[in-house]
Design goal:
single chain; alpha/beta; 22 helices; 50% helix; elongated; five-stranded parallel beta sheet; 11% strand; 11 strands
């Protein structure tokens, strides 16, 4: 009967080799997720050696299973470099590893340590294995780091062995030990893979199929970078991980950017203090309402600036310069608006995990956002027990209008308001703004703490006119009457007044200004100015053509 033992040993060695490669890729998958952490310093991860532009010896490339570049993806520009070697043993997973198991790695690490004096201060080393490591090895390294004598003969002998294999002594040996970490019992392939899948699930669609798809996409990226496809570029960057998750651009993490107009020298208004008092005392969501041009957006911007001095503020632009009408924008949808809010909380403030955009249903995004809000409040209140997260949703009636005009779509604002009103999160406050006639579009059927924005007083009109250099009391009285206390109307009238010679200005008895007329006058003035500069009929023709383009925007919306 033929002896089958050699083939059995060969098969076992092949399986062990495959397990080793799988462990490398799975561990690298866990590390690569750090590239998506909101406030990470990790710039790139190199597979199987240093990056292609780094000058490193052959032995350095051979020992480095992973190289983590922090700050930049090139050693000379990086703040620090983390060189990792991984070992995996299935047969001896529970047997403590002796010094001989670690010593080849220490030899190679010390060569890297010695060869590049210029960048030595940046280099750090880690040996990762799934086996436990003998206590004498760990104690010897700890004694070297602390600069204390060995506690036993075995530890003393191990220190001597470390010095021999690294060819380092005295201060250099101590410095090397301080830069070295041994991570024993680092988990099985299955345990590390479970950890990676759990993280992916918490960041995205928790469905089994979705998590598996992203996990396999990430493993394929790592496999490619470690193999022939990575021969000329073995670096993995943030954008590579996003691509593996089928995210085309980093901007997809922030799909609803704001387009607030610039505000110069805003006027402090009493309603801001009223809103602050409501934030401190009201258990209900707060709804701020005012007519078109009533100053809601400026108030929300000022409120955000003031509250941000102590609290975390998430300011959302529901109008976005009219982009809310664009079907490609769809900022009324939870999968876009909630993704933006959650990632602002994660990336700008570092208080929670990111949220990867998916095609999941609305309820998934509301649940995911609530979990992040809860995590963020805990982190925030660990430093300040009274700090809050304040969500400001400006012009949010447009989200309701867009959802109503679509088929089978819901406004994210309705969902978020109802969720926080039904099950409040202590430390989270939400404030929304809209026009009075569109309150149902903004809040749905929910009861809110409502605050109306009053028209400008004559004193406030005087203050705004003075900022523009208009101080004549007759002119101020006329501006106040014609604007009816509407900030946007007042701004248009101030600009009109400054451009109009005094002899042609309206008399004090002039009626309240008509917004359409003001817009028409503004356009006619611009066309006349263009004609003076030689445009002929082109300006009027262009505006006529522009008016015919979809979507038609009513004058009231332009206002």
């Amino acid at each position: 009967m033929p002896n089958k033992r050699p083939s059995t040993l060969f098969a076992g060695s092949v399986r062990a080799s495959r397990d080793g490669h799988t462990y490398h890729d799975t561990w690298a998958a866990r590390v690569s997720l750090q590239l998506l952490h909101p406030q990470t310093t990790l710039a790139a991860l190199a597979m199987e050696g240093f990056g292609p532009r780094d000058q490193a010896s052959q032995s350095a490339h051979e020992i480095a299973d992973l190289v983590l570049y922090h700050g930049a993806s090139l050693t000379k520009d990086a703040t620090h470099i983390h060189v990792v070697q991984l070992k995996y043993s299935l047969a001896r997973a529970t047997t403590p590893a002796p010094f001989s198991y670690v010593s080849p790695t220490l030899t190679k690490f010390s060569e890297i340590y010695r060869e590049d004096l210029k960048n030595r201060a940046k280099r750090h080393f880690e040996f990762v294995c799934n086996r436990p490591v003998r206590t004498s090895v760990l104690e010897a390294l700890e004694a070297l780091r602390a600069g204390t004598p060995a506690t036993t003969k075995t530890v003393k002998a191990t220190i001597a062995k470390i010095s021999a294999v690294t060819k380092l002594q005295a201060a250099d040996l101590t410095d090397f030990a301080r830069r070295l970490v041994i991570t024993p019992t680092a988990g099985s392939i299955a345990a590390v893979a479970h950890d990676v899948r759990h993280t992916i699930a918490s960041w995205s669609d928790p469905s089994t199929a979705g998590v598996r798809h992203r996990f396999l996409g990430l493993l394929q990226l790592l496999h490619d970078k470690a193999g022939g496809k990575g021969a000329h570029d073995n670096l993995i960057r943030r954008v590579d991980v996003l691509t593996a998750f089928e995210i085309e651009d980093e901007d997809d993490l922030f799909p609803t950017p704001a387009a607030f107009p610039a505000v110069h020298g805003p006027l402090e208004r009493p309603v801001i203090a009223e809103i602050e008092a409501a934030i401190a005392s009201s258990a209900d969501p707060i709804l701020l309402h005012a007519p078109a041009g009533g100053g809601k957006t400026v108030i929300m911007q000022m409120l955000a600036e003031r509250l941000a001095k102590r609290h975390v503020v998430l300011l959302f632009d529901g109008f976005a310069g009219g982009r809310w009408r664009d079907p490609a924008d769809s900022r009324h949808l939870a999968r876009r608006a909630i993704t933006h809010l959650a990632n602002t909380l994660a990336c700008d403030h570092g208080l929670c995990d990111i949220l990867i955009p998916t095609q999941s249903d609305d309820d998934h995004f509301i649940r995911a956002f609530r979990l992040r809000l809860q995590d963020a409040v805990r982190a925030l209140r660990a430093k300040d027990a009274d700090a809050r997260i304040v969500i400001l949703l400006d012009a949010i009636d447009h989200a309701g209008m867009a959802a109503r005009a679509a088929t089978n779509e819901r406004s994210f604002a309705h969902l978020l308001l109802h969720s926080l009103a039904t099950t409040p999160i202590i430390g989270v406050v939400i404030v929304v703004s809209c026009r009075p006639e569109r309150r149902d579009d903004a809040r749905g059927s929910l009861t809110c703490h409502e605050i109306a924005v009053s028209p400008l007083t004559k004193t406030e009109t005087r203050a705004l006119a003075a900022k523009a250099g208009l101080t004549d009391e007759g002119t101020i009285a006329l501006l106040h009457v014609r604007s009816a206390g509407n900030p946007r109307m007042l701004d248009a009238l101030i600009r009109e007044t400054k451009q109009t010679p005094k002899t042609r200005r309206p008399k004090p008895a002039a009626a309240v200004a008509d917004l359409d007329s003001l817009l028409t006058n503004t356009l006619e003035t611009a066309i006349a100015e263009a004609a003076k500069r030689g445009s002929g009929t082109e300006a009027r023709t262009f505006l006529t053509a522009l008016a015919l383009l979809p979507p038609p925007v009513p004058a009231a919306e332009l206002a």
